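[Q] Does anyone have a clean structure-token version of this?
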Amino acid sequence: MVASSASELVTALRAELAAIEPARRCDRVAERAGLGAAAEGRARTPLIGRLAVRLEDAAANAAFDWDPAAEHCRVAYLRGAFLSRGSLSVTATGTHLELVVNEAELGPMARRLAAMGLPCGARTRRGRGVLTWKSAETVMELLRRIGASATILELEASFIGRSLTGHLNRVVNAENANLKRAVVAARRQLAEIETLEQRGELRRLPRDTRRVARERRRAPEATLSELANRLDLSRSQVQRAFDLIGSIALHAANDDTENAENAPRWT
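[A] Here you go.
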């Protein structure tokens, strides 16, 4: 089964589940009970209608009761319930599975599912109970139990692809942010170096600091690590050199401002 879209995946899921032929009579009774109204000729799709017909042999003199039922019977009931009243949404932002039940059954069914290790949200919508799963892990476990093995493989591939895409987007965004910061820092450093040279203060700096300034002019786009490799210095040494340049340039700018404020004004 290879589905090229989310809607095709859901369609394939229903086909996979409807094709399961329960071997035990008790499972057939349970699945037919899960179909609910669909088993009485009110199926929402021909696929489910055909399933209801195949399970008609389980209709006579048989009833399903959850509490004394075996685990495999409960799973069969859930499979029928999902086919009849369930929905699955797979989008770029997450996975959402819903199961509609009678409002009176909402609380008891939520507790039963939690006891099976399938905890869900429970709410009322337009007079009907709705059980909701939003955890991809729990959705996968539910689908695995009711027999959707092929669908699970496709969902896992989808989750992995989505995870990789998200990771790559985060990496690209981080790299872009780092690049922008590096460009802004390099422009500031070049301006500070130019200020010190114009004031004749650059040549009085320590030798390694002058080397860092010279290399920055040669390679405005280089990172601190690249400058360090070119100069056979550590990254921290390069950073300290720029800190010194920036500190002296700031003092120079403050001096210029103070001199301008103290200059005589002619009126």
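[Q] Thanks! Anything notable?
[A] Residues 263-267 have pLDDT under 50 and may be disordered.
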